[in-house]
Specification:
161 residues, alpha+beta, 5 strands, elongated, mitochondrion inner membrane, membrane, metal ion binding
């Protein structure tokens, strides 16, 4: 029985080889697609570090990722990427002349400590593009949003937080 099956194997192979093969015209696999790059442009900053070498303790530059890496690369360039400097309060903001709050987003939170500084506990105010001004209930200082971001954010429907 086994010898009969062995003799049928070559016949089955010939039958498979004699069948017509359908070929698709114009299709290429991704491995042969030519690589196209935009001239003169480098990619976005790499937010994933290369990692540490085996047997060594990795440095912050090697192991940091995401926002931590973004902040670290900014510090190396001498840039405060999150703009965490306190506002310089040289005057009390009034309705006629409010303190402008720079923002790339249509809403920003401001911590008022009074004028002169540290006159009262920090009170958090929300300044946005919907209201002209925000006024501190403790000292009366007035803030307004100085929006410098994408105008498409002002169209509405994008109030995700």
């Amino acid at each position: 029985m086994a010898s009969a099956l062995r003799t049928l194997r070559p016949i089955g192979r010939l039958a498979l080889l004699s069948r017509p093969v359908a070929r698709s015209v114009g299709l290429r696999s991704f491995s042969v697609t030519s690589l196209r790059k935009a001239g003169g442009h480098s990619g976005p900053p790499q937010l994933i570090g290369p990692g540490g070498k085996p047997g060594e303790v990795p440095t912050d530059e090697e192991q940091s990722t995401g926002l931590e890496r973004f902040q670290l690369l900014g510090k190396l360039e001498g840039v405060d990427v999150f703009d965490m400097k306190p506002l310089e309060m040289t005057r009390l903001g009034t309705v006629e002349s409010p303190i402008p709050i720079y923002s790339l987003f249509p809403e920003r939170h401001v911590g008022c400590t009074g004028y002169p500084a540290d006159s009262h506990d920090t009170l958090w105010l929300t300044v946005n593009n919907k209201r002209k001004n925000a006024r501190c209930p403790e000292c009366g200082c007035v803030y307004t949003l100085d929006f410098k971001g994408d105008p498409a954010l002002l169209e509405g429907g994008h109030d995700h937080h």
